[in-house]
Amino acid sequence: MCNDVPVERDPQNIPVATLRDQPAAGGLASTINITHQRRVWSRRAASWDHGDNPGLAKVVKAVISAAGPVAGQVVLDMGCGTGQLAIPLAHEAAQVIAVDVSQSMIDLLASNAREAGLQNIVGHVGAVESMDLPAASIDLAVSNYALHHLRDPDKVRLIKATTKWLKPRGRIVIGDMMFGRGLNARDRAIIKSKVSAFVKRGPAGLWRLAKNTARFTFRLQERPVSMETWVRILTDAGFTEITSASIIAEAGLVSGQKPA
Fold first, then answer.
1. pLDDT of residue 154
2. Model's pTM, two decimal places?
C-alpha cells in the first residue's frame, strides 16, 4: 500500500489533490474488516466483471446516468473494482481517482485503462474508510456496490468526510445493495424474493441461504442498510438535493449535493 500518493496532473494540466491513507478511525474493528475485505477481493478480482451480470450492469448505468456530465471534473471512485465506473467516466472527466482495497483490483483497472487508451485514471490501493483528501479537491464522488461492505459507523464517517473533500455544489452518487431488516414493505419483498430464489435451487441453494443468512444476521461481510438510512446519512452529513430510487431487485441509488 502506498502512503501519501501524489496524483499527477491530468492532460488539461488540472492539479489534483494528494490522497493519503490514515489509521482506520473505527479502531481495531475497522482494521480487521479492511484486512478481511482485502483478502476476499484480491481472490475475486479476476471474476469481478459486470458484463456477465445484467443486474450489476444496470446499477453501473444508473450511477453513470445520475452522475451527469462530468467534462472537466475531478471524480473520486470509492471502491473502484476493475473500473466499471472509473473507465466510462474517465472518457469525459479531467481526472478519476480510483480507490480500492485490493491491489489485484487496481492492477486489473490499470490494464483495462491501458486497453481503453486512458491516461487520466489514478489508481490507489487503500481502504476508502481510512483515506483522506484535502478539502474542496474533487467535483464528484461515486461508488458502485462497494460501501455495503463497510461497517455502519465507517459508512457515516466516510460520507461526512466526502462533504469536506467535495467542492461547493459537488455531488455524491451511490449505487449499492440497499435494504434493511424487513421494517418496510420493500425490505420484506427483497428478503422474500431472495429466500425463494435460494430455495428453488435445492440443496446447494439452501446451503447458500444458510451462509447468507448468517452473514446478514451477524453482519460479517455484507452490511447493507436501507435507502431511508442512506438518505439520513447524507442528510446528517449536510448534503442537500437528495434523491433516492430503486434500480433492480435489492439495488438502490442515492445522490446528494454539497451546498454552495
1. 95
2. 0.84
Q: How far is 37 from 60, CA to CA, in rounded Å?
A: 21
Show the beta-strand stretches assigned E in 4-62: 20-21
* Nine cell digits for residue 123: 489508481
CB 110 within 8 A of CB 177: no
Residue 41 CB coordination number (10 Å): 20
Q: Residue 254 in 3-state DSSP?
A: strand
Phi, psi (5° rounding) for residue 127? -85, 130
Longest dimension (CA), the chain: 58
Q: Show Cβ contacts of residue 191 under 8 Å, excluding neighbours closer than 6 positions.
A: 179, 182
pLDDT band at 10; cut points 50, 70, 90:
very low
**Burial of 168 per CB tally in 10 Å (0-12, 13-18, 19+):** exposed
pLDDT digits (tens, 9 = 90+) for 22-41: 777 777 778 888 887 888 77
C-alpha cell at 196: 425463494
pLDDT in tens, 84-122: 999 999 999 999 999 999 999 999 999 999 999 999 999
Q: Which CATH architecture has domain 20-178+224-257?
A: 3-Layer(aba) Sandwich (3.40)
Domain boundaries, the chain: 20-178+224-257, 181-222
